[in-house]
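Record Sugar ABC transporter permease, 311 aa.
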Amino acid sequence: MAKTSDSPRAHARFKSPADRIFDTLNIVFMICLMVVTLYPFLNTLAVSFNNATDSVKGGIYLWPRDFTWENYKYVFNEATIFQATFISVLRTVIGTITSVFCCAMVAYTISRPEYVLRKFVSIAFILTMYFSGGLIPNFLLIRELGMLGTFSVYIIPGLIGVFNVIVIRSFIEGLPEGILESARIDGAGEFTTFMRIVLPLCVPVLATVSLFTAVSQWNSWFDVFLYNSSYTELSTLQYELMKILQNSNSSMNSGNDYASQFASSESGANQVTPTSIRATMTIVASVPIILVYPFLQKYFVQGMTLGGVKG
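=>
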C-alpha cells in the first residue's frame, strides 16, 4: 500500500480549485488590509519630513517630495521638550509598574473563592466603569488630597484600572487550582503564593495589561492640563506637543495666509504649518510605543486569548 505524504507540498497539490481561489482571495485581501493599515502612517511620516509649505500643495504619498529636517527642528527647539520627554518616560515606567502590580494583587484577591466579599467588591469596581463623579468632583478631590502640582497626580489616580483587573482575574481563574493548593500545603502564605506562583504564571496577561497601561500613560495629557499646567517642570511630552500645535494654529490664523508663506519660502525659509507640525508630533509621540510593541506582541496575543477564556 502506497504511503501518502503529510507535507504541505503534498496537501497543496491535492487542493481543489475552490480552495485555491479562496487562498488567492485571502492573500489579496490580507495584502490590501496591510496597505490600508500602513499607508496612513507612512504618509504621515513622509509629510513630517517634507517641506511644510510644499506639503500644502498636496500630492505627498509614501515619500517626501522636498526632504527637510526643519519640522523636527521646530518641535525639538522648544526649551521644555526634553524635560517633558523625561517626565513622560518616568510617568510611563513608574505608572505602568505600580498600576500593573496593584491590579494584579486586586485581581488575585477577588479571584479567590474563599474571599466572602469578592462579588460585592467586583460589582463595586464594575460600577465605576459606568458611573463617575465628574470632572469637578475629581478636581476637588485631587486638590483636597494635596496632589496638585505634584508628580503623584500622574500615578495614584490611575493606580487601579477596572478593565485590567477583570482581564487579570479571568486569567488567574484559569490557572490550575492544584498549583496554588500545593503552595499552601508547603506553608506558603497568600502573599508568597501571589509573588512566587501566580505572578510568574501570569506573565502573558501582565505583558498585555502593561502595554495597555503604558500606552495610556504615554498618551495622557489632559491630567497635565487640569492639575499641573502651571508647573513646567512637571509637563509631559504630549502636553508640550499639544501646546506647539496650538501655537502653530494661532500663528496661521493671525493674518499669515498661504500666499505669504509661499512668498517667504522662495527666500529659502521653511515655514511650518499646522499640517506639518501635526504630522511631526504624531511620529514623535508614536515611535516609542512602536519600538516597544514588537517585544510584547507574543505576550499580547497570548494574554488576550487566555484572559478571555473565562468571563
